């Protein structure tokens, strides 16, 4: 209307040569595996096989602060929402700007901005930045969250105080919008982490009772994934403009790196739509339907952040293992900045780094399942070679030390006399406690599914059907005496394959409340995998994709779970009933409720469990290690005098006898 220029000019540098991408930690994997599919398909890419990469606090390479936060989710005590089938009750709309006095009725109360989504394109952000041309009272105050590189780590710490002071000045001048921007990042200036600045300013304003007087907008090159946006919104951001991710997508299109031929406008709309869909899915895990309820709610647990940082920037967030201080965060910021703008002339491989964060790469982050370990275990099994298994155990021990919390623990052998081996429970009895992971027929082949069942039946352990049902004919004994029957029958929210015969033919009935690789989400089987036999087993239609809803349609409270447990015991009195939970803060209280609901068995799954198909956000950032969840569950059950009522089990990347011993 005023003729303002809202466009922007794309630089001539190529994706692989852009120093800003390197300075903000972009990797080739993130660009090709996440940004490309989001821009092309308008939805987040699917991953599989779980997460065997190291936790952010144990990573060898500097990580962004977002990766230290784990998403919380609803299980048992309240239901998640189905973001697909219940989309009508979900909204990303949010009013931003001064709220005024809630006790007074006046026209000024309505004078706020309505944003249809917290995600802003560069043009939309430019329009918001120049809103004072249309509404003079809507002044915008931009806070530069960069600082001179020459000031070093102390400059990073001083910048935090300066950012808070400038936000307070904006309030005193009655500015309506505060923009936190890292646009000034260059060879001479380093950016403070956008989430650190956002959380700090948000809590500074809350502590001084100023937060409702202003909108907080973030213009950042750092955020690019769904999880990054969720953390920013969860810690107080009203709107976000991920300008560098948008520029990266447009450069990829210019260089022919996106498989679909789309216009720049379509690519950016697709990227924004995929972010919106991802935010809705994360909100739905907690049973939250509107962005206004999610904004500033801090529904995360910090895994590896020190109390000094949490108290100032993320007040009230649970952090159990401590870790990153302001000084260490600053060191990571300088390490990333050096990759994009090196202060010395060094010989390096051109292009974006292959960090190996998602898939194993030589020279990248370590993975629990590396090629050496896989080769050794395959040789040990095929040739019954003890030395290969010893090599596998040693290799896994080293990798687990690099990647997991249990790798930091060791056994205390002091003042303890060894017990003669003939007094130890024999291995033939120990293996009866072993069970396979819940892998459905469909996520793996019939050959794999039935072979696991035969093997566990021979050992005396138990195999798990997963949520895809099981063919009744597998209960028949084979000519050689083996049986392909799975002892554990799982009941998930989709109820695929669940019949009276299915329930009656079980030694254990497992109610799947959540899955380690994607807690708060339902199982997913693409349509091209649903063959005739799979469809018959699941009582569905061939070729039609199957997605279990996140909530069980009949479980909205612990009382509802108790009713289902009772019904299952009536359907099969000789079977024990198990409830599958996922590790998170507070899982101990939930497990206590499950024990009181008369469950016989509780399974605590870790965040790193496998999956046939899940969004990368769920695989990488939801749930916690089983070490924390198992310890909390055991201690809470003991405190409530409930430990003797239930059997407690755990799963999640258990690799060797040492892992089993630590779990016990």
From TrEMBL:
Residues covered by the Glutamate synthase central-N domain: 20-306
Pathway it works in: Amino-acid biosynthesis
Cofactor(s) essential for the protein: [3Fe-4S] cluster; FMN
Keywords: 3Fe-4S, Amino-acid biosynthesis, Flavoprotein, FMN, Glutamate biosynthesis, Glutamine amidotransferase, Iron, Iron-sulfur, Metal-binding, Oxidoreductase
Transmembrane segments: none
Record carries keyword tRNA-binding: no
Biological process according to GO: ammonia assimilation cycle; glutamate biosynthetic process
Ion transport among keywords: no
Pfam family, one: Glu_synthase
Similarity annotation: Belongs to the glutamate synthase family.
Protein name: Glutamate synthase-like protein
Organism, scientific name: Aureobasidium melanogenum
């Amino acid at each position: 209307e005023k003729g303002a220029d809202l466009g922007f000019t794309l630089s001539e540098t190529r994706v692989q040569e852009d120093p800003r991408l390197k300075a903000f930690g972009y990797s080739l994997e993130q660009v090709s595996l996440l940004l490309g599919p989001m821009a092309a398909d308008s939805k987040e890419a699917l991953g599989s096989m779980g997460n065997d990469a190291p936790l952010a606090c144990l990573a060898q390479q500097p990580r962004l602060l977002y990766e230290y936060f784990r998403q919380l989710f609803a299980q048992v005590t309240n239901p998640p929402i189905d973001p697909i089938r219940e989309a009508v009750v979900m909204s990303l709309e949010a009013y931003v700007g001064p709220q005024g006095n809630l006790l007074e009725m006046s026209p000024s109360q309505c004078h706020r901005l309505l944003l249809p989504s917290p995600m802003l394109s560069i043009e939309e952000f430019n329009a918001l930045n120049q809103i004072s041309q249309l509404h003079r009272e809507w002044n915008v105050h931009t806070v530069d969250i960069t600082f001179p590189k020459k000031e070093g780590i102390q400059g990073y710490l001083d910048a935090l105080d300066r950012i808070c002071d400038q936000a307070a000045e904006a309030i005193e001048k009655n500015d309506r919008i505060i923009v936190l921007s890292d646009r000034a990042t260059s060879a001479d200036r380093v950016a403070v982490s956008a989430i650190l600045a956002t959380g700090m300013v948000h809590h500074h304003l809350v502590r001084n009772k100023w937060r409702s007087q202003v909108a907080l907008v973030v213009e950042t090159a750092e955020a690019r994934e769904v999880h990054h946006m969720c953390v920013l919104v969860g810690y107080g951001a009203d709107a976000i403009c991920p300008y560098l991710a948008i520029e990266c997508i447009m450069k990829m299109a210019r260089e022919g790196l996106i498989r679909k031929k789309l216009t720049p406008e379509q690519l950016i709309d697709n990227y924004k739509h995929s972010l919106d869909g991802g935010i809705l899915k994360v909100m739905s895990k907690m049973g939250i339907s509107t962005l206004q309820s999610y904004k500033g709610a801090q529904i995360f647990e910090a895994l590896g952040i020190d109390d000094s940082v949490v108290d100032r920037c993320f007040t009230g967030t649970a952090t159990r293992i401590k870790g990153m201080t302001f000084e260490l965060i600053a060191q990571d910021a300088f390490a990333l900045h050096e990759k994009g703008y090196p202060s010395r002339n060094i010989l390096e491989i051109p292009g974006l780094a292959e960090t190996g964060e998602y898939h194993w790469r030589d020279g990248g982050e370590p993975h629990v399942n590396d090629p050496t370990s896989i080769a050794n275990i395959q040789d040990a099994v095929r040739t019954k070679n003890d030395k290969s298994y010893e090599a596998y155990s040693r290799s896994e021990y080293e990798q687990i030390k690099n990647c997991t919390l249990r790798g930091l623990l060791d056994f205390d052998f002091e003042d303890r006399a060894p017990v003669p081996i003939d007094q130890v429970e024999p291995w033939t009895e120990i293996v009866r406690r072993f069970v396979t992971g819940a892998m459905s027929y469909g996520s793996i082949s019939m050959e794999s599914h039935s072979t696991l069942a035969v093997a566990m039946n021979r050992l005396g352990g138990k195999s798990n059907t997963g949520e895809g049902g099981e063919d009744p004919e597998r209960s028949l004994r084979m000519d050689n005496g083996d049986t392909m029957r799975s002892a554990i029958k799982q009941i998930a929210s989709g109820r695929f394959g669940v019949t009276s015969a299915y329930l009656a033919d079980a030694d254990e009935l497992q109610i799947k409340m959540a899955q380690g690789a994607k807690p708060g989400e339902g199982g997913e089987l693409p349509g091209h995998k649903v063959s005739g036999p799979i469809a018959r087993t699941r009582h569905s239609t061939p070729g039609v994709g199957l997605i279990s809803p996140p909530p069980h349609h009949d479980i909205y409270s612990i009382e509802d779970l108790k009713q289902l447990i009772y019904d299952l015991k009536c359907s099969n009195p000789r079977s024990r009933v198990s409830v599958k939970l996922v590790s998170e803060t507070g899982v101990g209280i939930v497990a206590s409720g499950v024990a009181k609901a008369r469950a016989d068995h509780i399974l605590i799954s870790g965040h790193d469990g496998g999956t046939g198909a899940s969004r990368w956000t769920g695989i990488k950032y939801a749930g916690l290690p089983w070490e924390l969840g198992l310890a909390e569950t055991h201690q809470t059950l003991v405190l409530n005098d409930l430990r003797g009522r239930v059997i407690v089990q755990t799963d999640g990347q258990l690799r060797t006898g040492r892992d089993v011993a630590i779990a016990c």
